[in-house]
């Protein structure tokens, strides 16, 4: 060791090769395929092949003018809106509690929140199939409590789908909120208290406005997931609880109408994005009015 | 809390939160409980306790084959993403030109931001158009790799982000070359992120449904698909036993993560 170790910055090898496989994966198998949905939606239908030779905008006009489709669209949007609202109402107290708790059970509680995320959708929906059936626990409990005489029909209705989706997507609202609430300095709220504000007032004037980013992130995530949910409505919804994603899969798999199914899928995506943009505009305006 | 005494409102709040925790976990516990049922029905109270439904499950070759198929898809997804997701994270956090960092991050987490059902449809059309279709399970495997990629990327990226670079500089100033520094300093530091990401990729791949539904080869079901099909015509505790096995697998993964790196380091 006679020579001094050079401290100059190391030679820059062409390091972009490191990102190459990922770019190939995402470019080749995500971006290109999404483009192929758009292309497919303009292809002509054919009875002898998957699609015909020409191109048409006919599938879009067909989808948009079909009252049957609109019935399902309305049900999907309504279900997604209810699920988003209820998951926010249920998720906020949990995130708030988990962000502040010093209980030694905190780890266990955290597992309660993330485990539904890690257990497959089919399994979770299956649980609700058991709970919500006519002779299931929900109906037995309500009957035992004397609240109902005859069972409530949960299955094959939008009601059952809504309840199960709330359970399925609740963690997606808790986790962003948890991150957000943990990042809020507790001294800010204490300052409000020490200035004489009640706890209620401190919460509504300080903590809640500061947690708005978490609320927005969770709400958008759950709304997108609910709008596009397939497994839960397919297993619990029957024909009366059918949502857009179920209809799209029906077009593709059962009826083998790929171009029309593609148009419906694009319609679903555009509708979802439009509603979110509208929502962001409205809430931005409302938030500007806040003190 | 400033040590204030508990008010009625505190107790109401605690009760409310406790109920929501129960709401979150109870359905899963219920399925596990019912898989040990001695009776014929998925109902409470159970008629005794037995392992007969697990016996029924393990003698069912369709479930067995589906489980093997799912396991292989999940393993390949975890391994492939363990390599390309880690490399991508290192590039984006360390080497990417500043103006590319954010676009690349968005691109790398894109599979999480678009609905899985749309990705499944996109891949269905794409593989048909390029003439591969659903042969050799290639479409379904690529679908699984694609959807689980962000879990590895995000976990490794966050480990790298929290890692103190001066340790690398120290190694280099002591004469270690780039590769040695990477292997002896950087890699051990980001290992928890890589392990978490891979386990996560495995678990998610084992569970995903929409991708498998649209991209599966004929006659080759994954475990969630097989369970879904089974429930169309059957409604007995065998299904609960299937669910319990897959829940157990998930919890093993969760316990490994918790023991090695701690659950709170997970990135979704």
From TrEMBL, chain A:
Keywords: Cell membrane, Membrane, Transmembrane, Transmembrane helix, Transport. SUPFAM superfamilies: MetI-like. Coiled coil: none annotated. PROSITE patterns: ABC_TM1. The keyword Glycosyltransferase does not apply. Residues 73-279 form the ABC transmembrane type-1 domain. It is found in: Cell membrane. The keyword Membrane applies. Its main location: membrane. The chain crosses the membrane at residues 15-35, 77-96, 108-132, 152-178, 256-280. It is a multi-pass membrane protein. PANTHER family: ABC TRANSPORTER PERMEASE PROTEIN, INNER MEMBRANE ABC TRANSPORTER PERMEASE PROTEIN YDCU-RELATED-RELATED. Belongs to the binding-protein-dependent transport system permease family. CysTW subfamily. This is Spermidine/putrescine transport system permease protein. It comes from Cereibacter johrii.
């Amino acid at each position: 060791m006679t020579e001094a170790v050079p401290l100059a910055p190391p030679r820059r090898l062409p390091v972009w090769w490191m990102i190459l496989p990922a770019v190939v994966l995402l470019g080749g198998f995500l971006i290109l395929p999404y483009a192929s949905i758009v292309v497919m939606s303009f292809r002509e239908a054919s009875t002898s092949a998957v699609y015909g030779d020409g191109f048409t905008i006919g599938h879009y006009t067909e989808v948009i003018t079909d009252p049957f489709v609109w019935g399902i669209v309305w049900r999907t949007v309504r279900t997604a809106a209810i699920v988003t609202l209820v998951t926010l109402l249920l998720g906020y107290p949990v995130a708030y509690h988990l962000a502040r708790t010093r209980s030694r059970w905190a780890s266990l509680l955290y597992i309660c929140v993330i485990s539904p995320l890690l257990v497959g959708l089919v399994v979770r929906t299956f649980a609700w199939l058991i709970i919500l059936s006519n002779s299931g626990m929900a109906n037995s409990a309500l009957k035992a409590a004397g609240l109902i005489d005859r069972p409530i029909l949960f299955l094959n209705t939008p009601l059952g789908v809504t309840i199960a989706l709330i359970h399925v997507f609740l963690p997606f609202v808790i986790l962003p909120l948890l991150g957000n609430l943990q990042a809020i300095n507790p001294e800010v709220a204490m300052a409000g208290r020490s200035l004489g504000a009640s706890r209620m007032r401190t919460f509504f004037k300080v903590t809640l406005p500061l947690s708005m980013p978490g609320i927005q992130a969770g709400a958008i995530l759950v709304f997108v997931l609910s709008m596009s949910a397939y497994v839960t409505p397919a297993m619990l919804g029957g024909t009366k609880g059918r949502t857009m994603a179920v209809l799209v899969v029906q077009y593709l798999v059962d009826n083998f109408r790929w171009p029309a199914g593609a148009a419906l899928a694009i319609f679903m995506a555009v509708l979802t994005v439009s509603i979110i943009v509208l929502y962001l505009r409205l809430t931005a305006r409302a938030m500007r009015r806040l003190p | 809390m400033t040590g204030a005494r508990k008010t009625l409102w505190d107790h109401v709040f605690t009760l409310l939160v406790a109920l929501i925790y129960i709401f979150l976990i109870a359905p899963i516990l219920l399925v596990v409980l019912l898989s040990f049922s001695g009776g014929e029905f998925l109902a409470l109270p159970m008629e005794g306790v037995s392992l007969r439904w697990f016996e029924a499950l393990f003698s069912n070759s369709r479930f067995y084959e589906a489980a093997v198929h799912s396991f292989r898809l999940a393993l390949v997804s975890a391994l492939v993403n363990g390599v390309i997701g880690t490399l991508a994270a290192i590039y984006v956090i360390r080497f990417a030109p500043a103006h590319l960092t954010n676009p690349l991050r968005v691109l790398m987490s894109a599979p999480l931001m678009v609905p899985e059902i749309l990705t499944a449809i996109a891949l269905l059309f794409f593989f048909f158009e390029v003439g591969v279709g659903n042969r050799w399970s290639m479409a379904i495997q690529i679908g699984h790799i694609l959807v689980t990629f962000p879990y590895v990327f995000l976990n490794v990226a966050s480990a790298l982000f929290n890692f103190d670079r001066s340790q690398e500089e120290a190694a280099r100033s002591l004469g270690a070359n780039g590769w040695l520094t990477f292997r002896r300093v950087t890699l051990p530091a980001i290992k928890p992120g890589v392990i978490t990401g891979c386990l996560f990729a495995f678990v998610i791949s084992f569970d995903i449904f929409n991708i498998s539904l649209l991209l599966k080869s004929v006659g080759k079901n994954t475990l969630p698909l097989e369970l879904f099909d089974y429930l169309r015509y059957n409604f007995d505790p065998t299904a609960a036993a299937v669910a319990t096995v897959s829940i157990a697998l998930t919890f093993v993964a969760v316990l490994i993560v918790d023991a090695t790196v701690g659950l709170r380091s997970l990135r979704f």
